[in-house]
Amino acid sequence: MPRPDSRLVLASGSRWRRQLLDRLGLPYAWVSPDIDETPHPGEPPESLVHRLALSKANRVAENHPDHLVIGSDQVAVFDGEVLGKPGDSATACAQLMRFSGRRVTFLTGLALIDTRNGRHRVCHERYDVVFRQLSDAEIGHYVQHEQPLDSAGSFRMEGLGIALFEKLEGDDPNTLIGLPLIRLCELLREAGLDPLRP
């Protein structure tokens, strides 16, 4: 949890996001924010991930003066529909059956709040995946093996999920896991924290 030398805080309880942030080699604390992630009626997916990323960062920033607070949130978009975490195996299998042979867009919102001066930046990154033609047996095996019930889109890029895809398209593959590191490094540099000059 918190380190005495860290002025960076990740507003997330996700171990996947922590593993990504670990790659930058910066000391940081992490706090799991408690927010309502329900989409507003008619809310566009870009607005949703912006709002949730900023809400997570704001919730944690309340108790962390003199820190840089990172918030992030991700949704899958398929045929114009926003898909969240499946929650159970049946829903995960149903989502993956719909995705078979199709393209799915993932939007990951990213927020950085500087509680020293109240400034914040919010953006989002897009990443597209094209799924292979998948059989019912392949989908069933994958869901049973990986249990991706808390992952938007019903898969985990970090594990066996890579076997589901025909093609990946985007600027930063970390976006698909849930924390766009290239853009995060840009925001951190703008806030005076360069990962290459800690």
UniProtKB/TrEMBL annotation:
Classify the main location: cytoplasm
Q: What is its EC number?
A: 3.6.1.-
Q: Which Pfam families match?
A: Maf
Cofactor or coenzyme needed: a divalent metal cation
Where is the site Important for substrate specificity? Answer: 16, 74, 158
Checking InterPro entries in the record gives: ITPase-like_fam, Maf-like
Gene Ontology terms for molecular function: nucleoside triphosphate diphosphatase activity
The protein's UniProt keywords, in alphabetical order, are:
Cytoplasm, Hydrolase, Nucleotide metabolism
Q: Outline what the protein does.
A: Nucleoside triphosphate pyrophosphatase that hydrolyzes 7-methyl-GTP (m(7)GTP). May have a dual role in cell division arrest and in preventing the incorporation of modified nucleotides into cellular nucleic acids.
The name on file for this protein is 7-methyl-GTP pyrophosphatase
